[in-house]
Amino acid sequence: MKPSRYPTTLACAATLGLLTLLPIAQAETTPVAGAAVSSELSGKVAVVNQEKRMLTIETAEGRFEVVHVPDEVQRLDEIKIGDQLTITETTLILVELRKGADAGTMGVQQDSSITREPGDKPAGMMVDSVTVTGVVQAIDRDAGRVTIMAPEETMTFEVQDPAVLADVETDDSVSASYIRAISGKVTR
Prior knowledge:
The chain has one helix and nine strands, in the order αβββββββββ.
């Protein structure tokens, strides 16, 4: 049995590197780019290790997946061998352009929340989010590049559609929000 890493975590920096500022809609705060990825693991619980907070799931295809259960999951002791478990992970990134009074200040904001579903079987959702806000330092419209100063570094991004840069000015604010939601549900 070879353990695999589930749920898969996408690195925010890698996602930002893949996203190029694509226009989606116009508003006071303009969503400039967005992407979402969702994956699901479903199967029968084969091993429950409460001490190490690990579960081994046997999928319908006969693969064994080892899952680390975070400390926030409070009902691990209620999950039994043979239970059916479904875990869904959704990762979302949204890049917004903020102008004028909506610009905000440079910084990083983090938030976490847990929602537990009532019932006799463990179920719930954990949501973690990070929003990084930076300031546009330079724009090269001819080359399709924008340089953004973030709290800890300055980065230059290639823009797939140079028309997006038409309304961008230096000192505008750009926010990138990275959200990861993991939900799990046990059935018997």
